[in-house]
Amino acid sequence: MDFLNAIVALSNFVLVPGIAYGSQLALGALGVTLIYGILRFSNFAHGDTMAFGTMSVILVMWLFQSWGISFGPLPTALLALPFGMLGCMALLLATDKMVYQFYRDQKAKPVILVIVSMGVMFVLNGLVRFIIGPGEQRFADGERFIISARDFKELTGLKEGLAIKTTQGITVITAVIVVAALFWFLNRTRTGKSMRAYSDNEDLALLSGINPDRVVMVTWLIVAGLATIAGVLYGLDKSFKPFTYFQLLLPIFASAIVGGLGNPLGAIAGGFVIAFSEVFITYAWKKVLGYMMPESLEPSGLVQLLSTDYKFAVSFVILLIVLLFKPTGLFKGKAV
Amino acid sequence: MTGSMRTIAMFAVVAILIIGTGILQSWNSALLILNMGLISAVMALGVNLQWGFAGLFNVGVMGFVALGGLATVLVAMPPAPGAWAPGGAWRIIAALIMGAATIWATIMVHRRMVKGRARALVTLGLLVGGFIVYRMIFDGGVAFVESINPAASGNIGGLNPGGENYRDYGWMTLIAWPVGGLLAAGAAWIIGKTALGLRSDYLAIATLGIAEIILAVMKNEDWLARGVKNVIGLPRPVPYEVDLQNDPGFVERVQAWGGDPVTASSIYVKLEYAFLFAVVLVLILILAQLALNSPWGRMMRAIRDNEVAAEAMGKDVTARHLQIFILGSAVCGVAGAMMTTLDGQLVPTTYQPLRFTFLVWVMVIVGGSGNNLGAVLGGFIIWFFWVQVEPLGLLLMEVVTAPLSEGSALKSHLIDSAAHMRLFTMGLILLLVLRFSPRGLLPGK
After folding, report:
1. Hey, of B212, B220, B394, which one would you mutate to test binding to chain A, going by the most A CBs within 10 A of its CB?
2. Nearest CA to CA, how far is A216 from chain B (Å)?
3. What is the Cα–Cα distance from B184 to A168, expressed in whole angstroms?
4. Does residue B214 belong to the interface with chain A, where contact is any CB pair within 8 Å?
5. In this complex, which of B199, B216, B435 lies closest to A102 when CB atoms are compared?
6. What residue spans of B113-230 are helical by DSSP H?
7. Distance CA A268, CA A172 (A)
8. N or C end of chain B, less CB within 10 A?
9. What are the residue ranges spanned by the domains of chain B?
10. Chain B residues touching A312 at Cβ < 8 A
């Protein structure tokens, strides 16, 4: 019984939140990695792109709510998601035309593009704060739990409860669908294949008649979609705040680099590695160990390796370890 | 010659902007802009050393600035009474030494032993065992220090010899400035040792992460500088306004000039700060300028422009990168210490990457990377706009929304949001400069 309790406690506090957070990071890291693979620079504006997409979704959602539309037990934000994605796509295509295209035509060095993306980051950050304000928005509505801790206890008779929030379920299901669709697109369709060819060898791809403008446009469209979905899932699960989204840049980049920049499969693996190490190291293990160990050995402290405020440090240390021992990431990424 | 004319003209513009602020708004706000402009210029010089001289992409400026601030507290505040007992601060220091020794031993073991399972096991054992022992020593010391008068102190304090009268030892803050540089240099050495071999994008992410870690430590380690409870009432190297107002000699002189003693005292204090900061800025600027034109500076630029060729010529690229990374970070640390001195308090939550890392980058790019005077100019101009965009944006919004009816939701939203115009404007300035004048206002040679 104690063993079961320990497993349930572990699932409740570590596995379920870890899987949800990992899926969100993976979706974010996919966007970063696609831009790196196709456009060949690290996009510092990605966190703010996520914020912009999420903001568009929230605005459309408010409109729907004022019309009295809701999505039953699911959050209304899901209904507004396609419209938010369209808004984010329009924004990214516009920034590409107005900002990035110039440097691409000039064949500017990647580091110049990184600095340019810093400028875009400022502009987007200001724009989001200007439109929706710097405050926190909680926009999850509908049913709160798939199964609440109390129901679980009554159902199983265990001492520990397992709560799964609706948003966590939605996160995982959406992430699986999106990732499957993305890989189908990259591996099976003509456009997807041309994207991979362009990423692997630009000159060869151009020689074989692939239209670079089209590849770049499709990349921005996909990235906008991924960023909006990742942002909305994160916001539903926690909350939306422009500054938090800006800070997500660090774990997202860590995920993409740990997995191998430019490698989509790596981005997903990296997202989960970062998410689980953050949760593992900042979780207070007292409860789980209390069930697993004989009473005499029960730990007196919280058995928390680091306080939760150090979660950035965790993603960073993982990043450094991987870079020192395997510089191209866990899966083979590319080096420009 | 045209280059130096351009430099003079640009700095004249800065002078006009600041003097204009003094005439149109108030001399107090003009001097505030001047003081922070001087500090920003020092920060920009530090980043320019790394980016302009060596092409190192450091986006962890905030961390080094914050370390400079920490140094101010650790030097200029008096030691907390009671904390320096064997079970308190000394125990923490012992734990830190022990932790550093563990890491050193692990690195040594990793280097000396043959690769294989035995090495992995010993390394892991050392790290895990070291961490447990470290926490056992460390936690006790922290609990002891933090329990002493937690409402007012609860930290280890600093080195100020004054005790109760620590404010009389204001010159200690001046010592804190180079110490802030040293602290930042130490951190830069650790970071550089691990991260400098990485490619430019990776270095960027690594430094971004380091800055967040430094901030996390400063926010959470209450024994160090009280964490988010902040340290207020730092001593200052200049007289206090109240003392000046109570000084009959000062009041008499001001009244002879026909001024108001309250305004005059605050302007006098700010002028003294401006003088101190200007001395530091000029000193660092001269050193940076000498370095740029020395054989060392030429070597640095050679490495920046073509690493492979420089390496083939026998230059140790990694060592030179480490050197300039440490130097640039130290300059940022000095600037951070100066800023905390000016503020008179250390508030870790005010350190934001957009303000302290990316804004400094905007300064360097706009001013002209690779040109020290350009970085200084960028520091002043961008800081001026950072401060003035807010009132200007508000003014603009009021003009734009004038036709809207009073009390309409859109109007009040637009006016409330005007404050966020500054980030937008900074991004726009950066993008415009990159597009139309990519080498900045004062291009480097």
Report:
1. B212
2. 20
3. 41
4. no
5. B435
6. 117-146, 172-195, 200-220, 222-225
7. 12
8. N
9. 3-83+148-401+410-436
10. 209, 212-213, 216
Rounded to two decimals, the ipTM of the complex is 0.89
Amino acid at A187: N
Q: How many helices (H) and strands (E) does chain A have?
A: 16, 2
Taking residue B11's Cβ as centre, other Cβ atoms within 10 Å add up to 16
Candidate CATH numbers 1.10.443, 1.10.3470, 3.30.9, 3.30.460; the one for domain A2-249: 1.10.3470
Nearest by CB: B417 against A116, A130, A327? A130
Any chain A CB within 8 A of the CB of B111? no
Q: Contact at 8 Å (CB) between A56 and A88?
A: yes
Task: State how far residue B275 is from chain A, nearest Cα, in angstroms.
Answer: 33
CA distances from B414 to A84, A127, B134, B234 (A): 22, 12, 53, 39
Pairwise CA distance, residues A28 & A228, whole Å: 9
The verdict on B421 touching A (C-beta cutoff 8 Å) is: yes
Measured in angstroms, the CA of A42 and the nearest CA of chain B are apart by 7
AA letter at B184: A
Closest residue, chain A, to B414 (C-alpha): A130
DSSP B150: T
User: What tokens appear for B24 in the block?
Assistant: 């149109």
Class of residue B104 by CB neighbours under 10 A (exposed 0-12, middle 13-18, buried 19+): exposed
SS3 state at A137: strand
Shortest CA distance from A129: residue in chain B:
B420
Tokens of A206: 């151009």
Question: In chain A, which residues have their Cβ closer than 8 Å to the Cβ of B213?
Answer: 310, 312-313, 316
Number of Cβ within a 10 Å radius of residue A72: 8
Count Cβ atoms within 10 A of the Cβ of residue B373 and give its class: 0-12 exposed, 13-18 middle, 19 or more buried. buried
Which of B390, B423, B432, B439 best probes binding to A when mutated, by most A CB atoms within 10 angstroms?
A: B423
Determine the distance in angstroms separating the CA of A133 from the nearest CA of chain B, rounded to an integer.
7
Of B55, B198, B420, the CB nearest to A129: B420
Query: What is the spatial distance between Cα A66 and Cα A50, in angstroms, rounded to a whole number?
Result: 24
Amino acid identity for residue B22 in this structure: G
Contact B29, B299 (CB under 8 A): no
CA distance A282 to A104: 42
| The pair of three-digit structure tokens given for residue B34, joined into one six-digit string | 């001047």
Amino acid at B132: I
Beta strand pairing call for A164-165 and A145-147:
antiparallel
Nearest to A75 by CA among A159, A152, A146: A146
Q: Specify the residue for token string 């080094």.
A: B64
B196 neighbors B321 (Cβ within 8 angstroms): yes
Contacts of A261 in chain B (CB under 8 A): 201
CB contact under 8 A, B220 and A309: yes
pLDDT along chain B (445 residues), means of 10: 82 93 90 95 95 89 95 90 84 91 90 85 90 88 85 82 84 93 94 80 84 89 87 89 87 85 89 95 95 90 89 90 94 96 92 91 91 94 91 84 78 80 91 91 81
- The whole model's pTM is what? 0.91
pLDDT tens, A231-264? 999 999 989 999 999 989 989 999 998 988 888 8
Determine the 3-state secondary structure of A165 from DSSP.
Answer: strand
Give the start-to-end residue ranges of the domains of chain A.
Answer: 2-249
Q: pLDDT tens-digit profile of B150-206?
A: 877 788 888 888 878 888 888 889 999 999 999 999 999 988 888 887 777 788 888
Contact A249 B213 (CB under 8 A): no
CA-derived radius of gyration, chain B: 25
The tally of CA atoms less than 13 A away on the side-chain side of residue B333 is: 27
